[in-house]
Write a structure and sequence with these properties.
This protein has about 170 residues and is an alpha/beta fold. It is about 30% helix and about 30% strand. The protein contains 4 helices and 6 strands, in the order βαβαβαβαββ. A 4-stranded mixed sheet has the order 3-4-6-5. Strands 1-2 form a two-stranded parallel sheet. The longest helix has 13 residues. The protein is globular and about 45 Å long.
Length: about 170
Amino acid sequence: LIFGASHVFAVEVDSDAIDILKKNARNLTFEKNLTILQQDLEDNEAIQRIQAVIHQKLNTDRYPKSDIMCIMNPPFGFIKKGIDIRFLEVAIALASIVYSIHAAGEKNRVHIRNKVEKLGGRITHILTQKLILRAQFKHHKQKRMPTLVDIYRIESNCEKTGSEFSFNDKK
């Protein structure tokens, strides 16, 4: 919203993160332009539910996929294999441009590039950065840990609208 978006749809499963998001939106007076969906993206109907909310809020039956950008920080997939790719599936289905953060490393880059291409996307940029992550889960051993991440910019197939995409599309 700071950069001029007319509306932001935030998808998050963690209720603590949602509380922080609501507080920040209130402080910045963005509540009217923010829709928060508490949604588990592992659910097979996730895209359809997200699309339905977008249609309702934008008051339209169809929206051009080119109008949607997704910025996300998915789980890295170390604990739950493939969850990072599931997030990419949802983002590429809904948006023309996706920015996504993943664990750095050549092996992971090759894996993500292959998956993105199979999903109809194209990686245009990869930026490697060091993030300091706070311990949030039981498997985190240190309070703060420097972690190398790759930030991807992905373009998806813009010929489809977000309301026309299904996981069975191979185009």
